[in-house]
Amino acid sequence: MVMRIDVHAHLWTDEYLDLVEHYGQDTSAHRGLGAGGSPDELAARFALLDSAGVDRQVLSVPPRSPHFADENQAVEVARFANDQYADFVRRYPDRFAAFAALPLPHLDATFKELGRALDELGMVGASVTTDVLGTPLADASLTPLWEELDRRSAVLYIHPTGAAAQSPLIKDHHMLWMVGAPVEDTIAITNLLLAGIPSRYPNVKIITSHLGGALPMLLQRLDDQYEWEAGGAPEKPSIAARRLWYDTVGHSHRPAVRAAAESFGSDRLVLGTDFPYEAGDLFLRAIAYVPEALGADGNNVLDHNAAEILGL
């Protein structure tokens, strides 16, 4: 069955952004972009999807995730996000699916909300940022999360945090998103590979953003050097990397998507647009460049891979 699904798409209502801002997150980069839930914004979004032949978007809240040190705040924001998304999916089931927001790092609350989101709200997976309040996703403290995701055979979508990978060399020099985001992707994924997360939890379907950051360019380097620098890794990074999936947000740079396809296999790529940051003509180009670069394999990336992973 052909179904064109965009796995990297954002929707933030003003109410949601106000809530996370109230608890200390900066939302200035996410307002006024057409990514809200008003009738006019939704109509414009659906018209854009139609023009690109996109059937459905999977909504996710990162980088404005409910990751707060205060458990009550984290739970409140996660439930608010998931209730809103469930409402949008109920109203527009042919247009939207959703990844659940999780109140990390609070594991008991996270398991409760994950169960509610998957079992009661019908969400297709969960989303997290590339770190949780500075803690890597491969950290031992998050082992119970991976165990629960594995038990559920869940999809986990990973999106940059927007913290410049904790580097002032990025943050203080106007590179927070154009460089910082793919650097965060690269670091987070490499941590997972070296920790053996993909092989230890084979039932988790991990989707990561932006073609894996710099990973397509670094994969051979990792294979050549991991044994002496990260000797505890259970398998070659290139083997581990091919257990994940990667969205096609590459800002229409054909060499980048070709490198990802050659590095991971085109069957490990899924359509992503990063709406609203690629909108209008950029949105159309974000989709068209995949078959332009990959030929017939690109059509499978657009119309089959995500539906198979998500069970839609």
From TrEMBL:
UniProt KW Lyase keyword: yes
Lineage top rank: taxon: Bacteria
Pfam families for the chain: Amidohydro_2
Amidohydrolase-related domain span: 5-312
InterPro entries with a match to the protein in the record: ACMSD (IPR032465), Amidohydro-rel (IPR006680), Metal_Hydrolase (IPR032466)
Alphabetically ordered keywords of this record: Lyase
Protein name: Amidohydrolase family protein
Native source organism of the sequence: Kribbella yunnanensis
